Amino acid sequence: AQSVAQPEDQVNVAEGNPLTVKCTYSVSGNPYLFWYVQYPNRGLQFLLKYITGDNLVKGSYGFEAEFNKSQTSFHLKKPSALVSDSALYFCAVRGANDYKLSFGAGTTVTVRA
Amino acid sequence: GAVVSQHPSRVICKSGTSVKIECRSLDFQATTMFWYRQFPKQSLMLMATSNEGSKATYEQGVEKDKFLINHASLTLSTLTVTSAHPEDSSFYICSAYDAGETQYFGPGTRLLVL
Q1: Candidates A34, A49, A106; nearest CB to B43
Q2: Strand pairing report for A73-78 and A87-95
């Protein structure tokens, strides 16, 4: 079985400060890892993914994530947060041979001006 | 990235009526689409996998006779909530894979059953 843990329900940061949203996963075989962002009353927007290659993945809106196989983690980061980054963030994983995504519970990010 | 649309974005209906939600892949073909349900401030719950030209695969605990799924073409899947009741009120989101490994999501449909 595959699963995702997002240990923080909420992350609060000041604008301009670094932002980190944590994610750990469990899956059989090589993981396919994803980050999505959801604004109120909207669907999920794709931010970035790790399938293979460099452990540091760069995505949309200045976000990046680092795949750490030994720690089974895929933390999302942004060097300088914006107020507009305030949203609900989901980490997701699937196995290479599985088409179903498993989502974390989500982390609400609030960036204060 | 690939674009998935949903219609309607919001619907209010009376208890006992049926509601149809459409999910379209706008710039790619999708043999498989997914339907999720999301409660406020919670994660997504996969309801079913919609397969073009064949029956949908439902997750455990999801009533297939209540949530009818039809995937008649490579760009359209529909979810019909039959005999809707207030407990069916929720945010319904569809998704599909593009040619790569990424699942793209529609904007969601807010259903309110009175």
Answers
A1: A106
A2: unpaired
pLDDT at B100 over 80: no
Give dist(CA B59, CA B67) in Å, integer. 11
Q: pLDDT above 70 covers what percent of chain B? A: 100
**How many residues are recorded in chain A?**
113
Calculate how close chain A gets to B82, using CA atoms only, in Å.
Answer: 23
Minimal Cα–Cα distance from B17 to chain A, Å? 24
Nearest to B43 among A42, A90, A100 (CB): A90
Q: A79 and A61 in contact (C-beta within 8 Å)?
A: no
Residue showing tokens 């090589």: A30
* Contact criterion met (CB below 8 Å) for B45 and A102: no
Most confident of B10-19, B22-31, B38-47: B10-19
